[in-house]
Design a protein that fits this description.
Layout lengths: L22 H17 L3
Length: 42
Amino acid sequence: MEDYDINRKGYHDIHDTMANIDLDYGSALAAIFIETGARAPR
């Protein structure tokens, strides 16, 4: 996540389509959310 290029072409503009979505980043982010939820106190 530290090297994510927020200035890349297609970042929330008219080129922001499924062809330009970074699925690896999305799955890593989902894993972080899942792990956080699993470790959260109940």
